[in-house]
Design goal:
The protein is an all-alpha fold. It has 2 domains: 61 residues; 105 residues, N-utilizing Substance Protein B Homolog, Chain A, CATH 1.10.940. Helices cover 61% and strands 0% of the residues. It contains 8 helices and no strands. Helix 1 crosses helix 3 and helix 6 packs antiparallel against helix 7. The longest helix is centred in the N-terminal third of the chain and has 17 residues. The protein is globular. The C terminus is likely disordered.
Length: 190
């Protein structure tokens, strides 16, 4: 497989997801993730790893600022109530929007985050991520329609799904050794 920025973003999301559950050393988390490829490294492994590491380190270094900016836009949503995938994907894309604007066009950063949300998030993730990032990228304050949509999502998630289960990340966890799945073994779910 060839290097792609999306693959680096997906890898960064997986590492950030793991760091969200366990307060590991960043360098250790990155090395641990990439150690899974000891036998079969993807094409352009070094470039992929370097870009992924830059994203992870950037998000961690600016996490308080990113969280503050996301929280200001995400009315009715506290970061700790968002799914771990959505929260970390928003941080990752917000970092690209706010700190890598010369390298990554706004529409590309948003579209990439939406596509990754479709792959790893729940059924509402892509629309939620798109709305938050669009407002962040264009400096728009949330509108009453945005607030109503976020309240509706919050109510759906709080009430549980059609089977009476509390809604969480609905996609089944993939094996942590694949490069396409967030690491889930770091901390057990409550």
């Amino acid at each position: 497989m060839t290097y792609s920025r999306r693959r680096a973003r997906e890898s960064a999301l997986q590492i950030l997801y793991g760091l969200d559950w366990a307060a590991d050393d960043i360098a250790f988390a990155i090395d641990d993730y990439w150690s899974k490829f000891a036998g079969e490294k993807p094409d352009n492994y070094e470039v992929l790893r370097r870009h992924c590491s830059e994203l992870v380190q950037g998000v961690v270094a600016h996490r308080n600022e990113l969280d503050s900016r996301i929280q200001a836009i995400a009315q009715h949503w506290k970061l700790d109530r968002m799914s771990a995938v959505d929260r970390n994907l928003l941080r990752l894309a917000a970092f690209e929007l706010l700190h890598l604007g010369d390298e990554v066009p706004k529409n590309v950063a948003i579209n990439e985050a939406v596509e990754i949300a479709k792959k790893y998030g729940n059924e509402d993730s892509s629309a939620f991520v798109n709305g938050i990032l669009d407002r962040l990228a264009h400096g728009r304050a949330p509108t009453s329609a945005d607030a109503a949509a976020e309240r509706a999502k919050a109510q759906r998630l709080a009430s549980g799904d059609k089977h009476g289960r509390k809604a969480r990340d609905k996609r089944p966890a993939k094996a942590a050794s694949t490069p396409d799945a967030p690491a889930t073994a770091a901390k057990p779910a409550p």
